[in-house]
Amino acid sequence: MRAEDLLLLAVFTPGIASILILLLRNHPNLRESVTISASILSFLCIFNISKQVLEAPVEVTLFNIAPGIDFSFKADAFGTIFALTSSSLWILVSIYSVGYMRALKEHAQTRFYFFFAIALFSAFGIAFSKNLITFYVFYELLTICTYPLVAHEESEEALSAGRRYLAYLLPSGGALLAATMITYFLTGTTDFKAGGFIAGSEAMLKFLFVLFLLGFVKAAYMPLHSWLPTAMVAPTPVSALLHAVAVVKAGVFGIIRVVYYVYGAELMSELKLGAILAAVAGFTMIVANLLAIGEDNLKRRIAYSTINQLSFILLGTAMLNPLAFSGAAMHIPFHGYMKITLFLCAGAIAVISGKDRVSELDGLGKSLPLTFAAFAIGAIGMSGIPPVAGFLSKWYIAFGAINANNLMALAVVLLSSLLDAIYFFPIVRNAFFRESNERFRELSHLYNVYMILPLSITALFSVVLFLNPDVLNIFELVKKAAEELWGGRI
Q1: What region holds the NADH:quinone oxidoreductase/Mrp antiporter transmembrane domain (predicted)?
Q2: How far apart are the C-alpha atoms of 163 and 325, rounded to whole Å?
Q3: Res. 67 pLDDT band, cuts 50 70 90
């Protein structure tokens, strides 16, 4: 099959699957088989595309909108990293969802799987967008289709979280549309270009950059972050989608696209915009970690960790050099695998034991050894400790800060990693070394397998990616992206 056809198949498979899910709403086994099969097919397509991308980008234009504006896709090295992350994790979250949703006898399961598939369709469209126009369409679709997932429980708390979700992200989409229109007015194009293409007065370009930042509130930087912890009322597979697979990654992915493919490192440095982004990221990292330390709800504590880790990516982006960029790009998949491990563990703990607070987890490690062992791996990786993949990406970001002669950024990286350990390690210690007399609810053994197997695989891959970061062509794609941005000077 031609690479162009693979690209279209990869993007549209989740969309086609969403229709089949609706048609099979009265046949749950077939409905869920479609979900899992579609995730596998998308991943296989994207994995094969990744091999082609190492030679040359793959482009497909669907139709022309206006002079200089096409609705088109382009698989380049950087976009393929995001697509590989989302597609590979979709497989595991789909399997996990079967056990989770059935064990809890959740209502509206067809609606859940339908919007989940649309969310992945949006994520792949974002990853492979050739320009800001295509990007904007899929970015807004992602916002709209994830609202029913956030509000899935339909309780007052869930509906309130959904309203806050939209209150932050819909105006943010308006800012992105305005920034896209201004970009087109200034340059006559919105096509992403390695090294950037934007031109204009200094004042206009600084204003435009701030407008772009406001357009990417999905990156959950402070103070525009509160929608994310609030959204943890959603089912655990949705939390995994928000934090590891699609939503927040779309935010940081978009900022990196703007920094390196709209502005370019040289212009960012000349306008001192990297310093602004670094300040926002550094502030977010420290404050998010301090809030995590005092949070007793397990999923919300992990959510604050996500806010911190996203800004790790932004800090690496802001250093404007190949080392830090490589660390930021690697942290997209590495954080994805580690963070989804933590969320899947939190969901399994809640379903099996009925516990969702950190203060209630004492001694549970003896009854759920695989779950808490996987949680420990995720915690070690978040803290940047080998042999988990988070060490590698943080290492590159730290050396990128040294290369940029930014000792303040280096100090933030080190302090933030220490704070990660402070609020994650006691959970593991208390689970394994304290006593508990709690009795667990009775669950089908099959449901346990559906949940425990995916989180075990994500934990395992978090280590495998440290030992061999190119297991999914990730390291080669990162290297290729850096070479494209810096003209081979890496």
Answers
A1: 129-418
A2: 35
A3: confident
User: In DSSP terms, which residues pair with 317 in a beta bridge?
Assistant: none
C-alpha–C-alpha distance, residues 94 and 446, integer Å: 15
CA geometry: angle 252, 245, 306, nearest 5 deg: 55
The pLDDT value given to residue 13: 97
- Check pLDDT > 60 for residue 455: yes
Write the pLDDT tens digit of every residue in 458-469: 999 999 999 998
Q: Which of 68, 37, 79 minimizes the C-alpha distance to 329? A: 79
Query: Can you name the residues that pair with 160 across neighbouring β-strands?
Result: none
Peptide bond connecting 387 to the previous residue in cis, omega within 30 degrees of 0: yes
As to burial, measured by CB atoms within 10 angstroms (0-12 exposed, 13-18 middle, 19+ buried), residue 445 is exposed
Asked if residue 223 has a cis previous peptide bond (ω within 30° of 0), the answer is yes
CA distance 324 to 316: 5
Q: How far apart are CA 224 and CA 28, in angstroms?
A: 38
Closest by CA to 83, choosing from 63, 53, 108, is 53
**Among 372, 371, 280, 362, residue whose Cα is nearest residue 317:** 280
pLDDT in tens, 292-311: 999 999 999 999 999 999 99
Domain ranges of the chain: 3-486
Residue 456: which residues within 8 A CB-CB, separation 6 or more?
370, 374
Length of the chain: 490
Report the number of secondary-structure helices (H) and strands (E) in the chain.
19, 2
Report the 10 Å Cβ neighbour count for 411: 12
| Percent of the chain whose predicted confidence (pLDDT) is above 90 | 82
Count the helix, strand and coil residues of the chain and give each as a percent rounded to the nearest 5.
75, 5, 20
Whole-structure pTM value: 0.95
Contact 205, 267 (CB under 8 A): yes
pLDDT (mean) for 438-448:
56
321 — phi, psi (to 5°)?
-140, 160
Residue 8 DSSP code: H
What's the mean pLDDT in 108-119?
94
pLDDT at 443 over 50: no
CB 146: neighbour CB atoms within 10 A? 27
**In DSSP terms, which residues pair with 64 in a beta bridge?**
70
Query: What is the C-alpha to C-alpha distance for residues 281 and 328, in angstroms, rounded to an integer?
Result: 12
Q: Is residue 175 within 8 Å of residue 224, measured between CB atoms? A: no
Which pLDDT score is estimated for 435? 80
Q: Which pair of tokens denotes residue 253?
A: 């992915």
Which residues on adjacent β-strands are paired with residue 60? 73
Q: How much is the mean pLDDT over the chain? A: 92
Q: Does residue 133 contact residue 71 with C-beta atoms inside 8 Å?
A: yes
